[in-house]
């Protein structure tokens, strides 16, 4: 007799949705000579350049609204 | 960004009383000081020892590092040794201020190869664990050095043994498909949350390789052989988080059948087993595979195992479960399910519903603490063989031709 529960949340409330940027489905053509998105040397082992874009975009925006000095003052941290 | 699960705001090793999440817009004034766990706002050096002997740290930026380290060390009481490995000794410990709060203290050994500094395993473990804050990933609580300059890592203490023990103990605890689903949910979340890692063993973890700024390929020799995906066995110079999905797929199959799926003793044997059990990787099912540096498969090629065979072997998790398993064990990493797709798979919503955490079968046998100690003491990612030697069975080069002669 399990009590009523909502649907199983596989992310356990932890899904990450960026709120300051959105990733396009289309992979941009990189301004580099190497075409890592298509070169079998990179892709045969599963390397996916989209993972790299996910990481790069995340790092570009991560902490954009964080003001270190103000917040240190606020929290009284060292 | 404040609530991003990818940015852990770990409890500072030095200030465990501070809130773990940063104050957000809910604070009435952004500049108003918020109450913190710091005992004294005074800028002077103030060390307060409460009756239990715990030391609180005052708000001063000029405290010598040695002293900070001593205070950190003083927070924990080291107890009996749980295990000893080539990489570390592991001790049971507890908080001085609250002896009921158990921890595991992992004292990293000075390794012969790395006398001049900290072993790379330890650096990697620290680097990744301090970034990760997730219920399905082991927690790093603190770091300090001991008198003999050994690195001590304080970790969450997990006394209930691991899934491997549960799987192998076939005469012991019975469990069913709903339990498998619940465990898989935890494993899958942990893997999704942080790409290329193992859940409690981060010594060999690394962030995404960056093909633009470096030509250095990633090391192919990184995952314990039974769980190593074919692209790593074939020495692929660049790979992705799909390597972990394979490992989780193998664990999934082992959870269902309570038996090892691909227990190869050497890389060569592992490849043979993959070919036999899952199918031979060929240009047809994995374009480009034959050009991988260590590509070598037995001559008698086996077609990719069809769904019906999986249904016979793993049918207890239902058709949806078998579908997910097959996608996790896709030979071509580009066709393998991603961590996100894995979590969005319909199996999770199919009957039966996953067992609730508190109702899961538990392994309460004695010996788990010792097992935990041994696991944590072992060099990350490497299983000791019966004689305690590591890696002896790992063939560096694959040469099926030579093996046949």
From TrEMBL, chain B:
Residue spans of biased composition, Basic and acidic residues class: 357-399
GO terms under cellular component: cytoplasm; transcription factor TFIIK complex
Highest taxon of the lineage: Eukaryota
Binding site for ATP: 107
GO biological process, one term: positive regulation of transcription by RNA polymerase II
GO molecular function: ATP binding; cyclin-dependent protein serine/threonine kinase activity; RNA polymerase II CTD heptapeptide repeat kinase activity
Composition skew (Low complexity), residue ranges: 19-35
Record's protein name: TFIIH complex serine/threonine-protein kinase subunit kin28
Organism: Coniochaeta pulveracea
Gene that encodes the chain: KIN28
């Amino acid at each position: 007799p399990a009590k009523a529960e909502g649907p199983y949340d596989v992310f356990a409330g932890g899904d990450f949705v960026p709120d300051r940027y959105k990733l396009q489905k289309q992979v941009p053509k990189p301004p580099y000579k190497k075409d890592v998105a298509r070169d079998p040397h990179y892709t045969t082992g599963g390397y996916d350049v989209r993972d790299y874009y996910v990481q790069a975009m995340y790092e570009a925006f991560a902490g954009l609204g964080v003001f270190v000095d103000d917040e240190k003052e606020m929290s009284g941290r060292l | 960004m404040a609530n991003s699960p990818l940015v852990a705001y770990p409890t500072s090793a030095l200030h465990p009383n501070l809130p773990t999440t940063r104050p957000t817009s809910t604070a009435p004034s952004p500049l108003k000081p918020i109450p913190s766990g710091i005992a004294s706002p005074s800028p002077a050096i103030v060390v307060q020892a409460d009756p239990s002997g715990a030391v609180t740290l005052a708000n001063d930026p000029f405290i010598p590092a040695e002293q900070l380290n001593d205070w950190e060390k003083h927070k924990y009481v080291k107890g009996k040794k749980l295990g000893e490995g080539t990489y570390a000794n592991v001790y049971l410990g507890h908080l001085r201020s609250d002896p009921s709060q158990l921890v595991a203290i992992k004292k990293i050994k000075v390794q012969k190869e790395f006398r001049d500094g900290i072993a790379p395993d330890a650096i990697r473990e620290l680097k990744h664990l301090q970034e990760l804050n997730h219920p399905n990933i082991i927690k790093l609580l603190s770091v300090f050095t001991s008198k003999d300059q050994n690195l001590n890592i304080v970790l969450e203490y997990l006394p209930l043994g691991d899934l491997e023990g549960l799987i192998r103990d076939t005469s012991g605890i019975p469990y069913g498909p709903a339990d498998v689903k619940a465990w898989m949910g935890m494993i899958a979340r942990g893997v999704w949350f942080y790409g290329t890692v193992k859940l409690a063993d981060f010594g060999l973890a690394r962030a995404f390789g960056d093909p633009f700024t470096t030509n250095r390929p990633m090391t192919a020799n990184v995952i314990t052989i039974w769980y190593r995906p074919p692209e790593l066995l074939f020495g692929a110079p660049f790979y992705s988080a799909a390597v972990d999905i394979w490992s989780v797929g193998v664990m999934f199959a082992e959870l269902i059948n309570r038996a090892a799926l691909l227990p190869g003793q050497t890389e060569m044997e592992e490849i043979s087993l993959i070919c036999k059990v899952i199918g031979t990787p060929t240009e047809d099912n994995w374009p480009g595979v034959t050009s991988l540096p260590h590509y070598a498969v037995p001559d008698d090629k086996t077609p990719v195992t069809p769904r019906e065979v999986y249904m016979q072997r793993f049918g207890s998790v239902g058709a949806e479960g078998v579908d997910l398993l097959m996608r996790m064990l896709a030979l071509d990493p580009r066709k393998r399910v991603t961590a996100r797709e894995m979590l969005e798979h319909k199996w999770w919503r199919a009957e039966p519903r996953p067992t609730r955490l508190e109702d899961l079968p538990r392994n309460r046998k004695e010996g788990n603490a010792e097992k935990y100690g041994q696991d944590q003491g072992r060099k990350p990612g490497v299983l000791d063989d019966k004689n305690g030697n590591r890696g002896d069975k790992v063939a560096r080069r694959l040469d099926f031709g030579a093996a046949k002669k």
